[in-house]
Predict the structure.
Amino acid sequence: MIDLLVAARKDAGLTQVEIGVRLGQRQTFVSKYELGERRLDAAEFVTVCHAIGIDACDLIKRAKDSL
């Protein structure tokens, strides 16, 4: 799931810094969840998807389809 989230961010042409700004967080917040050092709860996941400009449900479906 995180790999898809990282790919979506990169596909959108966004940096970790830009996502951090959109979330009101530091770049390190983004780095930590992208590296698996921090987990996102469901609300944070939806918020991150929104900041990237993707639909959270679509990302979950893609993750499920890749199993």
